[in-house]
Amino acid sequence: MKLFKIATRGSPLALWQAEAVKKQLEEHHPGLQVQLVRLTTKGDRILDTGLANVGGKGLFVKELEDALLKGEADLAVHSLKDVPVDLPPGLMLGAITEREDPRDALVSTYAATLEDLRLGARVGTSSLRRQAQLLEKRPDLEVMPIRGNVDSRLSRMRVLYLDAIILAAAGLKRLGLEDRISRILPTEEMLPAIGQGALGLEIRQIDAETMRLISFLNHPSTEIEVKAERAFLRRLEGGCQVPIAAKGTLANGSLNLSGFVSELDGSRVIRKSGSASSEDAENLGANLAEAVLDDGGREILTRFYSMIESL
Fold it and tell me: How much is the pTM?
């Protein structure tokens, strides 16, 4: 059997995720030789500018996708929240893995909750989605941009004299840093990014052999949930750096979806929720997005996209 190559970013979290997929493939297919191909993406190189200002869509996936298209890799492992809803021609998501905790986490040296943060506290996050939800609840907070991998953001918290930072719980748990979490933020308090906690395994559409090899890694319940979330995002024409959030929850064949669009300062937030059968996931996402747009989301997003285009 040929050498099977997995394209991955080189950050500790990305490598953990790719190694986890590699291990499962080797265990499920004895004799399969799997090699990681480490690549640096535009999002990894540009650390001094907000992601929304450098063309938010695909910043952490394009180089991996190029490797797939050139035949330099057979599979790309992504954090699904980084993957645009529209993929390049010739590529597809071959599997979506079982979700780790999709919620965000508060990391602080003294605060056990957002309410415990001092007046005017400095909170680090590079996510406009998190910024909007923080300021909605605590308009007194000073939100500070902070980029880099999980370890560097944790260390910069001290250097920048931050009271707290917000990170994805999944990343902290995967890296064995769960003890740094002050509080897991419930989705009612902080709605997560689309696809957060799941991995997207991208392949070439014509590569039936790779599809066969990875099919066991697909988690049907997670796939249904993120189908609804990504349909919500597609209808809003948003990228991963837009103040948009959604979370699907599948239980007993019924799919519930909550979504939101917000002004950057949290002064106006449009929240909607709905439910449908699991077979109707994509329609649920699109219909919920339409309801958000009609209730003021269209105005918010039009203004946001105009602002981005002018930068």
Answer: 0.92
